Amino acid sequence: MNRNIIITGSAGNLGGAVVNKFKREGFKVIAVIEPDSGHEVEDADDTYQVDVSDERSVEAFSKEYQMQYGDLECVALLVGGFGMGGIESTSTKDLDKMIRLNFFSAFNMVKYFLPIMKKANNGTFLFVGAKPALQPEEGKDVLAYALSKGLVIDLAEFTANETADLKVRSHVFVPSIIDTPQNRESMPKADFGQWVKPSEIAEAMHYAATNASLRNMTFKLYGGVY
């Protein structure tokens, strides 16, 4: 029987790599993409258009999921965004945008899919943090981004505490710069060989999701950058 995984942000660079990896390893992939984005996820078994930053949309999706699939092995929370700006140049609007994109997108999914995992006493959440959220000296010029990703890391810890007596796990993956076409274009003089590849993050996620001995781990995927 195929194991079910929900992957939000499936149409992104990291999302594509995670979809491909879990599909190849025998999972049934339920891809989630932004509504009206025009994106397609070829390797997915099923695709849903859900605004994961909107609570009501996620609630409706969770009900549909339970009717269609029932069991849930894993949720990969890959929706996110990036923004520049230090304290003095960051507005509350900037903060709201980053928190909605990076934190609400994870929180809503945990809120409505955690009960499924609790009931089955099984499941894994895969969160994506950020290096600047762990190392404040690197976050001074990306304040809203770092703060929002710090909330994601905190959410993973709260989720782990919530499920301390259950076989439900919460892993956090903290990449440095991810080797994507967009990042290469924005930093053309960088040493791309020092960056972490989406496929490497996907490998780490699959390893964590399929090893029951690993519980509530933080994986620092910094490539050659320290």
Label this structure with key terms.
single chain, alpha/beta, 7-stranded parallel sheet, 7 helices, 7 strands, globular
Radius of gyration over C-alpha positions, nearest whole angstrom: 17 Å
Structural class determined from secondary elements: alpha/beta
Largest sheet: 7 strands, parallel
Nearest-integer average pLDDT: 92
What oligomeric state is this? single chain
| Order of strands in the sheet with most strands | 3-2-1-4-5-6-7
N-to-C SSE string, H for helix and E for strand: EHEEHEHEHHEHHE
The amount of beta strand, in percent, is: 15-25%
Q: How many beta-strand elements?
A: 7
Helix content percent band: 40-55%
| Overall 3D shape | globular
Tally of helical segments? 7
Unreliable spans? none
Report the end-to-end length measured between terminal Cα atoms: 41 Å
Write a concise synopsis of the structure shown.
The chain is an alpha/beta fold. It has helices at 13-24, 55-68, 92-120, 131-134, 143-162, 181-186, 198-209, and strands at residues 3-8, 27-33, 46-49, 74-77, 123-128, 168-175, 218-221.
What can you see in these coordinates?
Helices cover 43% and strands 17% of the residues. It has 7 helices and 7 strands; from the N terminus they run E-H-E-E-H-E-H-E-H-H-E-H-H-E. It has helices spanning 13-24, 55-68, 92-120, 131-134, 143-162, 181-186, 198-209; strands at residues 3-8, 27-33, 46-49, 74-77, 123-128, 168-175, 218-221. A 7-stranded parallel beta sheet has the order 3-2-1-4-5-6-7, with helices on both faces. Strand 1, helix 1 (13-24) and strand 2 (27-33) form a beta-alpha-beta unit. The mean pLDDT is 92.
